[in-house]
Amino acid sequence: MPYSTQTTTPPPVSYRLIRKAQLLQKIPISSSTLHARLDPKSRYYDPSLPRPRYLPGGRIPYWMEADVDAWVALRLEGFNQSDANNAHNTNVFGKT
């Protein structure tokens, strides 16, 4: 009896790089809040926030879109409409 040799493959990983403006469209925080979240010396430091990457010899920060999307998904996990109705100023991104 033949059996299926098909295997499920994970979805392809996106290696798309996004710039700061695109990042701030995905994460509704200000530019200054982003910098505070990335600074380990800041009281608003967020070690879970994806770190910027730099191309060799470059000074422009880029973020991996897949990392940002995964971070947003984790922040939204468990957050549902009933939570939003119970808390007036709930912000899953912890806007400062």
Structure summarized in a few sentences:
34% of the residues lie in helices and 8% in strands. The chain has 96 residues and is mostly helical. 2% of the residues are buried.
Which labels suit this protein?
96 residues; mainly alpha; three-stranded antiparallel beta sheet; 4 helices; globular
Topology overview:
Layout: E1 17-18, H1 20-26, H2 31-38, E2 53-54, E3 61-64, H3 65-76, H4 81-86
Antiparallel strand pairs: 1-3, 2-3
Quaternary organisation of the protein chains: single chain
As a whole number of angstroms, the C-alpha radius of gyration is 18 Å
Biggest sheet character: 3 strands, antiparallel
Helix content: 25-40%
Q: What is the 3D shape?
A: globular
Q: Total strand count, please? A: 3
Poorly predicted regions are none
Class from helix and strand fractions = mainly alpha
Q: Number of helical segments?
A: 4
Instruction: Tell me the series of helices and strands, N- to C-terminal.
Output: EHHEEHH
Distance between the ends: 62 Å
Protein described:
The structure is a single chain. This protein is mainly alpha-helical. The chain has a domain of 58 residues. Helix content is 34%, strand content 8%. It has 4 helices and 3 strands. The protein has a 3-stranded antiparallel β-sheet with strand order 1-3-2. The protein starts with 16 loop residues before the first strand and ends in a 10-residue tail after the last helix. The model has no long low-confidence stretch (mean pLDDT 83).
